[in-house]
Write a structure and sequence with these properties.
Elements lengths: L1 H19 L6 H4 L6 E12 L4 E8 L2 E17 L2 E2 L10 E9 L2 E10 L5
Parallel strand pairs: 3-6
Antiparallel strand pairs: 1-2, 1-5, 2-3, 3-4, 5-6
């Protein structure tokens, strides 16, 4: 009898912290977090219209980094409010880009061409 009481007490002692630290709503664990958004500002290095990709040169600290972004059908391209096409972008243009990571790589959600001299 004393062995059963000890086993029950040990089990309760081990399970109480687990139960009290559990979230109140178990559905909160199953909801997916929105994908992280990445923001870049840089100079276009290359545009591949056929593949639908764009390479940006961005500054990171004291070094440079090349970022390749794939354009999705829903990607918004703009310049000062006017809509653009991927063919309108060329190497040397300065752009702001927003994208998200997917299993296939970085996908652009929005690309905005910045006029020269705009901070």
């Amino acid at each position: 009898m004393q062995r059963i009481v000890r086993t029950a007490a040990l089990t309760a002692t081990l399970l109480v912290p687990l139960v009290t630290s559990a979230p109140a709503d178990w559905r909160a664990l199953s909801t997916a977090q929105p994908a992280a958004s990445y923001h870049y500002q840089g100079t276009i290095r290359a545009v591949n219209v056929r593949a639908g990709t764009l390479e940006l040169i961005t500054g990171v600290g004291m070094s440079l980094r090349v970022v390749r972004m794939t354009m999705a059908p829903t990607t918004r391209l703009a310049s000062g409010g006017a809509a653009l096409r991927l063919t309108d972008l060329k190497p040397g243009d300065v752009v702001r880009a927003e994208g998200r990571r997917t299993t296939t790589g970085l996908v652009a959600d929005r690309v905005e061409k910045i006029a020269a001299g705009t901070p």
